[in-house]
Structure to design on (424 residues):
């Protein structure tokens, strides 16, 4: 496959576009043991999470609400953007406890898996001990001999750094230049060590990877390659399916589900897509959303080069206000696992992210960060760029879900600055 000239030109000019995936494969529901194992892990460790973060979760559950946003949908229609048939929901991963972003799912799964492996191998806890014992000084003293490291644009670092420091690990977060200052400060306050790099996200990741290589006491969480992260995200699909059922939503061929997922390296949207396809098969249509300044997945998939191409190769600098999506090269793991499940990828201009941020806040009273707002652009961009409904589907039978990936921990002053910018 080769990126067509027109697609490439729009990428280079930072023009919004919808790329529809010619490699999308038909898909019947299938078993997903990785996602099931991650759900079991979260259930097993609920007592541990409850003990580590008292009062911050409901019984140690890492889960988020599904909110319907009819006022926002009406406002889009009134602006003449798009009369949205069907129901429109926001999956509120911005409100995931402790971490405030989708990274809670992958990051907490990864750190818990590693901690459990070490503790089991050590024999310091009885086989049948409750995971609440992970919050005791004995286990924490044991884990403090080990380091957990990660490279991050911000939110993954917050998730891994918070969780590993809370368990007693030595937590080291390698941060790129576009990571926000408040995230670095919050991490330090939570006991993690933050190392800053002048370069971009890719450099922070390679530095972290090199720092851990060959040292059994140091574990590097590899955002570009980790299956454990991927399954942590995939576990969200069952949660959404249960919430849709509770909201009276049917998902089948005549009632498609369209999900809009902000994409950085692709782990979070790729994992969720994999999980949704395993449950709904062809009835789920998953679109990734990227900023026009850093469309790494669109480039990797449309060119067929996957992780062998980065946005810098086509002359982009990868800069964007959507700091959670500022990854120049897609994850090879996600390209291979979910590359034929993604219906398409669309790109959003930074100004539109801010307009949507303001509109959601005014109509629903909900604040989410700019990266997460890429999800809200989905229905408009699909309509504008000619996405065809599956044959025989009535538009009012569609359910749209925008995945709100972050914003819960954004401090008041930053929030005010984002909202002020949204009004311009
Ligand atoms: C990380 C992140 C994403 C995308 O996740 P990837 O795994 O990098 O694709 C989306 N939104 C926010 C707010 C994020 O922090």
């Amino acid at each position: 496959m080769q990126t067509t000239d027109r697609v490439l030109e729009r990428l280079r000019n930072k023009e919004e576009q919808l790329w529809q995936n010619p490699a999308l494969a038909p898909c019947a529901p299938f078993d997903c043991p990785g996602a099931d194992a991650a759900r079991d892990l979260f259930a097993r460790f609920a007592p541990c999470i409850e003990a580590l973060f008292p009062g911050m979760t409901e019984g140690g559950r890492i889960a988020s609400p599904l909110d319907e946003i009819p006022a926002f949908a009406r406002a889009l229609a009134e602006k003449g953007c798009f009369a949205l048939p069907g129901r429109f929901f926001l999956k509120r991963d911005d409100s995931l406890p402790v971490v405030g972003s989708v990274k809670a799912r992958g990051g907490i799964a990864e750190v818990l898996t590693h901690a459990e492996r070490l503790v089991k191998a050590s024999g310091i806890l009885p086989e049948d001990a409750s995971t609440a014992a992970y919050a005791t000084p004995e286990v924490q003293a044991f884990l403090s001999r080990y380091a957990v490291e990660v490279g991050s644009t911000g939110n993954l670092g917050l998730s891994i750094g918070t969780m590993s420091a809370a368990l007693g690990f030595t937590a080291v977060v390698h941060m790129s230049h576009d990571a926000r200052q408040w995230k670095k400060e919050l991490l330090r306050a939570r006991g993690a060590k933050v190392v800053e790099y002048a370069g971009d996200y890719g450099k922070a990741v390679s530095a972290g990877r090199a720092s851990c290589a060959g040292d059994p006491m140091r574990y590097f969480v590899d955002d570009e390659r980790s299956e454990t992260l991927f399954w942590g995200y995939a576990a969200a699909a069952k949660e959404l399916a249960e919430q849709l059922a509770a909201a009276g939503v049917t998902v089948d061929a005549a009632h498609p589900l369209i999900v809009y997922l902000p994409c950085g390296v692709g782990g979070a949207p790729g994992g969720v897509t994999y999980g949704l396809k395993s449950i709904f098969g062809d009835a789920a249509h998953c679109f990734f959303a990227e900023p026009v300044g850093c469309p790494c997945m669109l480039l990797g998939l449309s060119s067929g080069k996957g992780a062998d191409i980065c946005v810098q190769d086509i002359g982009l600098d990868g800069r964007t206000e959507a700091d959670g999506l500022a990854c120049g090269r897609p994850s090879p793991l996600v390209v291979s696992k979910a590359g034929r499940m993604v219906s398409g990828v669309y790109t959003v201009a930074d100004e539109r992210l801010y307009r949507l941020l303001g509109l959601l806040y005014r109509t629903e009273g909900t604040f989410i960060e700019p990266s997460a707002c890429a999800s809200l652009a989905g229905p408009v961009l699909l309509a504008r760029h000619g996405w065809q409904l599956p044959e025989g589907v009535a538009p009012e039978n569609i359910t749209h879900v925008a995945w709100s990936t972050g914003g819960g921990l954004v401090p008041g002053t930053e929030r005010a600055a984002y909202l002020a910018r949204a009004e311009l």
Remarks:
- The mean pLDDT is 94.
- The first helix runs from residue 5 to 12.
